[in-house]
Write a structure and sequence with these properties.
Length: 203
């Protein structure tokens, strides 16, 4: 699946600051205390087929109000080092943190129509001149603005990857805007799960 470019570049930029500032210990008995054993985050870096770095990122601490440090150990070495201004928590063990998480991104002023399709009903919220109508009746302006604001941006890292075939959607929301492709949000009701959503903006 697509990775979020900014997250990957941020991780690489972080690794370039991984310069030991002091030796903390060379005693393997201390690995657990600094979380540079199996409880740490192991990061392997490859340049082509060659593994250029294999490091365990341990716990981090605050030196003072403006600086922090992380304990690290190269996998094949006993030595534990402290690295200033490096935070191991920037390397999340959750793969979803590196995925493209955008779900919706719209410009309220560009939207000109929203089509709602439910199992037993359907209606259209459309903009005529500067006014919004529900089918042909005036829409509540305050509620419409509130709803449109919610559509401006949405993201999630709660991905469902274990369902191969969702079938037909139970409901859809189609967003139409000037000079843009429609964005279709589909909702699927799957037994034993909450409503599963898919956006054509990030299929």
């Amino acid at each position: 699946v697509a990775a979020k470019t900014a997250s990957v570049k941020g991780a690489i930029a972080n690794l370039l600051t991984l310069i030991p500032s002091r030796l903390v210990s060379n005693d393997p008995e201390k690995w657990k205390d600094y979380q540079v054993d199996s409880t740490g985050t192991r990061v392997k870096v490859y340049e082509g087929d060659e593994k250029s770095l294999d490091v365990i990122l341990g716990r981090f601490g605050v030196t003072d109000q403006r600086s922090y440090h992380t304990f690290v150990r190269l996998l094949e070495d006993n030595e534990i080092y402290s690295v200033n201004n490096f935070m191991s928590i920037s390397f999340s063990p959750d793969p979803a943190s590196f995925r493209e998480q955008i779900f919706l991104r719209t410009r309220k002023d560009s939207l000109n129509g929203i089509t709602f399709n439910y199992p037993d009903s359907a209606f259209v919220l459309r903009k005529v001149d500067k006014y919004w109508l529900v089918d042909d009746a005036p829409a509540d302006s305050a509620k419409t603005v509130e709803f449109l604001n919610k559509l401006s941006y949405a993201s999630s890292k709660n991905f469902i990857d274990d369902i191969m075939n969702l079938g037909q959607p139970s409901l859809t929301l189609t967003l139409s805007a000037n000079n843009q492709d429609d964005i279709v949000v589909s909702g699927y009701r799957v037994p034993g799960k909450a409503l599963i959503l898919n956006s054509s903006l990030n299929p």
